[in-house]
């Protein structure tokens, strides 16, 4: 395997290699044998002391102002994997409560909310600095109020000027060691700041432009968001918002699944492009996304479909990770159920397409598990 894997990931990938597995076999593997990366296990590996429940309950209650009993119930649910935190602010509160550094915070964010610290988002830059300096969440809020006033003096830079700025900002922030230096950092970089991922949006916008106006299509044939969502992105996922009857595996796969309203909001920049939307578009339009790569950097040549299925999987795995890296999003994780289904779809046979495989395995997942 060309992609570097952890021991946990290797077991899951090994099952995909060699003999072609049926959708039912993949679903059964996920239910019975696969190594699934759990939020509770990650927390316990990062914080190994006996007072984990108390630290989380006390820290989040003080950070959020929420009643202690209510927070305690949430913590118990997280540590028993009944559910996971639903928003990034809570995740940051968890990280502050456990005195995590930026590297540990990256792990928590990437496994639960699709992307790590967004180093062009003013709030998350302050959080990164505060975590590095072991400041409290409350101290981070006070610091945020001060630097936001500096950042607010100028509008964000234009998209074309910020394409390569995230890595530059990350590198520069490493040398910031005091609140005075942080204030100066914001003064220098305020025009580069923004809460949305520009590279992801640029790729998403180009794909959506082509989908909305297929080449050669007449004006009346152009696709609306409902048609794009239903035809290319729903992929047999149930439309219902009710999740009480879903198993945990179904809930994990369905979480953040984009619908037409979400797509429209992403397209108009009312919300950020989601990792799941970008990956799902890739399953149908990998060559359009690959066209965005510089020619010398692209490794999906015109003949790669002539390779054997295992090699196709490896090449697509690496290519998708490169795209996600560019967009500041988490790489594909073989220990994440949704990502594993995507990896399964990447191993195509001759005359087979990724979107066909993902539709088949998702149909099996929701049909076979319904009511269990």
Detailed description of the structure:
There is one protein chain. The protein is mostly helical. Helices cover about 60% and strands about 0% of the residues. Helix 4 crosses helix 5, helix 13 packs across helix 15 and helix 17 packs across helix 18. The radius of gyration is 22 Å and the shape is globular. About 5% of the residues have low confidence.
* Intertermini distance: 35 Å
What is the count of DSSP helices, taking H or I runs of 4+ residues? 19
Class derived from helix and strand content: mainly alpha
Order of helices and strands: HHHHHHHHHHHHHHHHHHH
Strand count, sense and barrel status of the largest sheet are: none
Strand composition percent: under 5%
How much helix is in the residues?
Answer: 55-70%
The domain tally reads 3
Low-confidence segments, ≥5 residues, pLDDT <50? 152-163, 216-220, 294-302
Shape: globular
The count of strands amounts to 0
Rg measurement, Å: 22 Å
Q: Averaged pLDDT, please?
A: 85
